[in-house]
Fold:
Amino acid sequence: MKIVVLAGSPKGEMSITLQYVRYIQKKNPAHLFIIIQIGNQIRKLEKDAAAFQAVLDEIRRADAVLWCFPVYFLMVPSPLKRFIELVLERHAEAAFAGKYATALTTSVHFYDHTAHNYIRAISEDMGMQAIPGFSADMEDLLKPAGRAGFISFALNFIRTIAAQAPVEKAFAPVNVSIPEYLSPAIPDVPKTGRRRIVLLTDAGEADVNLRRMTDAFVRFLPNAVDVVNINSLDLKGGCLGCCQCGDNNVCVYHDDLMPLFRDKLMPSDAIVFAGRIRDRYLSARWKMFFDRSFCNGHAPVMMGKQMAWIVSGALRQLPNLRQLLEAEAEMGRMYLAGIVTDEDADSVRITALLRDLATRLLRHVEENTPVQPTFLSVGGHKIFRDLIYELRFVFRADYRFFAKHGMFDYPQKNIRKRLQSGFLSLLMAIPAFRPAFFRMAKSRMLEPYQKIVDQA
Ligand SMILES: Cc1cc2nc3c(=O)[nH]c(=O)nc-3n(C[C@H](O)[C@H](O)[C@H](O)COP(=O)(O)O)c2cc1C
Structure:
């Protein structure tokens, strides 16, 4: 059996994820794993039609495709995202159609599920039979249980292909037809506000709806807006995964990214993001931007700012993407004032939503509206907290930030709760105490809440 491995790590042969493939190749010498580097070859594949064609030919000859990549910023790394765009732009899905596919990732399990949802849905869009992937913790291969789990996954994949078994689909195709947004003539609102608002967009010439929506939004906002098109930034490339930024939040690239953060985004009061959906995410350019923002580490360096999204495309059909946008905002501790899309057929309604977003965004800035954490950030924080604590020798800047902001909030540090819990555990070991406890528990639990209500 021949399995093409599309390797998405920018670290190329130095990729940890790739070691899982090498391991499984040794364990299954009867099957051939052909590794194709995408993560560090994307420029070549973009420019060199023959090189791109060679990849397609290899896929055409294979029985299956294995997407092999590190989770980057809740998704696939930007080069792999670009590769997927190239396949779709060049209408090359036929090379993939009918093959079996699955994904192998390594990560710290921070939004690995969103990356897997994305790649599985993309595989189905390309006409492949997509089997749920394997999400390894970075260090799983080093542990017997991790290796056993991976071997069982790989065997299941190989057996499914050998049996030509049917695979259930997980995602409906996206209906991409979006109505034209007709913006009305909007008189300029006097820009009396003194807040620093930045709008980041990747709108190109063809992104008419997006440009009209951001124009309308800017006109409605009673505050000057600094508009930055991320396509015009000099970005030398995608994140290299070198983690050298962990020391002091300084990227090894010398380009426009760090000055943009330093001079515009950090001092801003609100950031508005705007983008058009390509396949099931935003553009690879946006992905590159987010991956590169890894130079700010895992700390919510923008916390306290307000933000909003203006999106062109079928976001309502892409709950995975919506979750990504919400999670990024929450993890960044930035209040997401709203997401306006161009999906409504009624342009008047879109205009009203944009006007309302502009008014509310400024109000949220004035009122400093706090983020309302949900599982998206409460769960995410615990993963980051443990990671930074363990890897404080690499992520030294994060460690300083977490320590300064009391973010190493381990429960065992709460002495009062520990004593209370220890004492009650002892009492609960006494059979006669338990019924009394449960008799009183409801009312005793309510007491502090009732006190607050009474005092209100
Ligand atoms: C830019 C960047 C973004 C990352 N984003 C995530 C993430 O969103 N979730 C996660 O669990 N790990 C994330 N990681 C950690 C990598 O997924 C992890 O280190 C992976 O094992 C690297 O694999 P590789 O050596 O094959 O590139 C990120 C790492 C980098 C450098």
